[in-house]
Specification:
The protein is mainly α. It has five helices and no strands.
Length: 162
C-alpha cells in the first residue's frame, strides 16, 4: 500500500472515530441535557461576538486574544464532555453495585450551569465595555446564580468530608 493511501486510510479511521465519539456524546446529551448544552453554546457564541465587538469599540482588537478565546470555548466543551463521562461512569458503577440512581446527569448539568453563568457575566461585561447600559438586576442575577451553584457545591463538599 502506498504511503498516500495509508495516510488517507488513517485519516478516514480517525475521522470515523471522532464522528462516532461525538455522536455517542450528543446522543447522551440529547436525552438528558441537550437543551442546556445548546443554551451554553449560544451563550458562548454571544460571548465571543460581544468580546470582539468590545475589543473593536475600545481599539484593543487582537487576533491573538480572539484565538485564545476560541481555544477557551473548546476547553469549555471538553469540560462538559468530561463531566458527562463522570456522570456515565457514576451511573455504570452504581448499576454494577446493584444501586439505581435518579441522577442522570448531575455533574454535566452543574458544569453547564456554572459555565453558563460565567458566559453571562462575560457578555454583560463586554456589553458594558461597548457602552451599552446594563440593568443592575441582570448583572446581579448572573452573580447570584453563580453564588448559588458554588454554594450548593460547597455544601456537597462539606457533607462528603464529614
Amino acid at each position: 500500500m502506498s504511503k498516500r493511501k495509508c495516510e488517507n486510510l488513517n485519516d478516514t479511521i480517525v475521522n470515523k472515530g471522532i464522528f462516532t465519539s461525538v455522536t455517542i456524546v450528543f446522543s447522551f446529551m440529547y436525552n438528558s441535557m441537550g437543551v442546556l448544552f445548546v443554551i451554553l453554546l449560544i451563550a458562548m457564541g454571544f460571548d465571543y461576538i460581544t468580546g470582539i465587538a468590545a475589543g473593536f469599540a475600545q481599539g484593543k482588537l487582537s487576533s491573538r486574544i480572539g484565538i485564545v478565546g476560541i481555544v477557551k470555548k473548546f476547553g469549555y466543551v471538553a469540560l462538559v464532555f468530561t463531566a458527562m463521562l463522570l456522570d456515565l461512569a457514576t451511573i455504570h458503577v452504581m448499576a454494577q453495585l446493584g444501586y439505581s440512581t435518579p441522577l442522570g446527569s448531575l455533574f454535566g448539568v452543574l458544569t453547564i450551569a456554572w459555565l453558563f453563568t460565567n458566559e453571562g457575566i462575560s457578555i454583560v461585561e463586554n456589553l458594558g465595555r461597548m457602552g451599552v447600559p446594563i440593568p443592575p438586576f441582570l448583572e446581579k442575577g448572573f452573580q447570584a446564580l453563580k453564588r448559588l451553584i458554588e454554594k450548593n457545591n460547597d455544601k456537597n463538599d462539606e457533607g462528603e468530608s464529614k
